[in-house]
Write a structure and sequence with these properties.
CATH class of the largest domain in chain A: Alpha Beta
Strand content of chain A: 15-25%
Radius of gyration of chain A: 22 Å
Shape of chain A: globular
Number of strands of chain A: 15
Number of helices of chain A: 10
Order of helices and strands of chain A: EEEHEEEEHHEHEHEHEHEHEHEHE
Structural class of chain A: alpha/beta
Oligomer: homodimer
CATH architecture of the largest domain in chain A: 3-Layer(aba) Sandwich
CATH superfamily of the largest domain in chain A: NAD(P)-binding Rossmann-like Domain
Distance between the termini of chain A: 11 Å
Helix content of chain A: 10-25%
Number of domains of chain A: 2
Chain lengths: 353, 353
């Protein structure tokens, strides 16, 4: 429980137990690689909640490449995190106190809880209960934003068909690994790009990718040419930069390039030049399209109806990289940008009570 | 008439009149700006036509930015023009002799006749008769590839709605000027980018564009920001390069970027870097798509059903820049890349007989 209210007896000493809310706040905006030096550790006293508010204790934090964009001083699909504000993050938590009819103590919920122990939500806005039988880790991964991103990004922006070749970059990441497995379910040939022999072996082994290209140890251009002899029908790109350019060079006719992200450029101090071969989109009559998963949150039922059975049947597997320790939160974000994580990057603060 | 056959009388002298076919052939592949030095003037004797062949005399040549790509030594949507081959070009001509049931002498026809006086087509392949009442100039412009490109590029790859802002680059060119007028018919606000005050005055005057930005005399970025306060819903880009990057910086949500061409890069010796801000496609959930008009030729009926009345009612106007003289063919192509033409660039060789 976060806070025991003081006894309201006049003329007697009051006993106050204050609950401390640990936080990591944005101290300075990074120019280049983001790191612990850009955040400040703060302990604050947790305030009482007001009417219609819900108090949640964070159990598990999600780490996502898009967080790098949130700390830049520019408008994007969300306003930037302000200096001195708690770092924004997707989290799963447990309701500890609720003045809102929709939530009660003990409920497992998901929201943008941020890098802190507790967060308060007015009117339950942005808070959703976890579906029955789904763990916090799963809710932030395969059944959460990651799975949604893979599912709607791939299936709403393209229609992979049997025989199509689907290329996925960042393929051993949380989203990429699910994209490839969904494409396999749809009957496509799937080629993944990932860093290092272990990740590549995981893709072609457990996950059933048809081929994997190890960008740390081989030429991606040669790998794509070799593994995509009929060129690429669908390119799901999480990386941008050179990888995007190589993909654009190998498009089949009427190809679909799905821009999910561009992690290669997120920590650059200057905007990087774009691909030199954009005109390949003209020659091959192809489409390149971006999306943001927040636009699809209302379609989560559609997603779960497919993903639940796929997961239960083992058609979609999911790996989580779970770190621990409040003090390790900022450095855990860096793991995404150095490619240390395989699968979904999480940090666990506590188990449900 | 191309050739008078010799009188077939034995034991008498034969009188032969040979018809000379003037040609411009590709001599060397340009690296950088294309010019007359890359072509060779040749006179050849016109051969008899064979079974099912049709002989056509070129009356009018079309000049199109895409011709620059045809002389590069790389596969594209058509094979490159070979060294020593007649330069490929869209033309309107008149049938002078036909061994094919579908065509007879006098027919006005359109095809890829190339830079020469005469061309021969087996089985009438690639040859189509001009619709009734359409002049050679119109057939190569507003009712030809130019009009088709504007019509299907704009309306098949986007759906401009009343109130939308449509930005057009190369707006005083053959295609761009028609794109803007179609967008106006659909009720959109139309902003054009063109070079020089005369072109801009033509756009906002005769053609009814809402605004024009003179890229030779003002900052395009400032102009776009000023004239597109609600950002851009549809961007029809003929130019590429910096102009594409500026357009991408001003996209509205769910915008459509139609890649028609990238004339700014066609004469570069090295591929130019792409736009630094491709990730704006993600933030704005936008789509960038290329197309080639050859995919739409079978839908010409649909196009004419709209364009004929628009043209007759003056809703679509069309300007042609008609050069003359066989010797001026190669230098006329250069006019496109220096922006000398307003509207459709043509060269007239002869009137119909």
């Amino acid at each position: 429980m976060p806070r025991i209210k003081p006894l309201e007896l006049r003329n007697q000493p009051k006993e106050i137990i204050v609950t401390i809310n640990r936080q990591w706040r944005l101290k300075t905006r990074p120019s280049g690689l983001i790191g612990p030096e850009h955040f400040e550790y703060v302990e604050t006293e947790l305030a009482d909640i007001g009417a219609e508010e819900v108090l949640v204790r964070n159990l598990c934090l999600s780490f996502d490449p898009t967080q790098r964009g949130w700390v830049n001083d520019m408008e994007s699909y969300m306003p930037p995190v302000g200096i001195g504000e708690v770092m924004r993050a997707g989290t799963v938590g447990q309701v500890v106190e609720s003045n809102h009819a929709g939530f009660e103590p003990g409920d497992l919920v998901q929201g943008l809880g941020g890098w802190q122990d507790f967060f308060t939500v007015p009117n339950g806005v942005g808070l959703s209960k976890l579906p029955e039988g789904i763990s916090p880790e799963q809710a932030l991964g395969v059944f959460g934003t990651t799975g949604l991103t893979a599912y709607f990004g791939l299936l709403d922006l393209s229609e992979p068909k049997p025989g199509d070749t689907v290329l996925v970059s960042g393929a051993a990441g949380a989203t990429g690994s699910v994209v490839g497995q969904i494409a396999k379910i749809k009957g496509a040939r799937v080629v993944g790009i990932a860093g290092g022999p272990e990740k590549c072996a995981w893709l072609t082994g457990s996950l059933g990718f048809d081929a994997a290209i190890d960008y740390k140890n081989e030429s991606v251009a040669e790998g794509v040419a070799r593994h995509c002899p009929d060129r690429i029908n669908v390119f799901f790109d999480n990386v941008g930069g050179d990888i995007l350019e190589i993909g654009l060079s190998h498009l089949a006719m009427n190809a679909r390039v799905i821009l999910c992200g561009g992690i290669s450029g997120y920590n650059e101090t200057e905007p990087q030049p774009g691909p030199k071969n954009i005109m390949n989109l003209v020659i091959t009559r192809s489409r390149m399209e971006g999306f943001i998963i927040v636009d699809y949150l209302h379609r989560i039922g559609e997603f779960l109806a497919d993903m639940m059975p796929w997961y239960q049947q083992g058609l979609v597997q999911h790996k989580e990289d779970v770190q621990e320790g409040f003090e390790n939160i900022p450095s855990t974000l860096q793991r995404l940008f150095s490619g240390q994580n395989t699968g979904k990057q999480l940090l666990k603060l506590a188990d449900p009570s």
